[in-house]
Design a protein that fits this description.
Elements: H1 29-49
Length: 65
């Protein structure tokens, strides 16, 4: 599984090992594909749009794709 800024919507990609982590045992490829998308969406909403700063906290009542 890897996270990179662009180019990951292709059928085949080459990335540095620094951007990759091993899939946990039992995780499917479909689940692994969803992790970076969900993580990046949450990060963008909380920090870029919401302005969350170090020391602050947030309560998420509900989250859905």
């Amino acid at each position: 599984m890897c996270i990179k800024y662009f180019g990951l919507w292709s059928e085949h990609v080459c990335v540095s090992a620094d951007y990759c982590v091993l899939l946990p045992e039992g995780m499917t490829y479909e689940e692994a594909a969803a992790v970076p998308v969900n993580y990046m969406t949450a990060y963008h909403v909380l920090f870029c749009l919401g302005g969350l700063q170090k020391g602050q906290s947030v309560l998420v009542h509900m989250a859905a794709g």
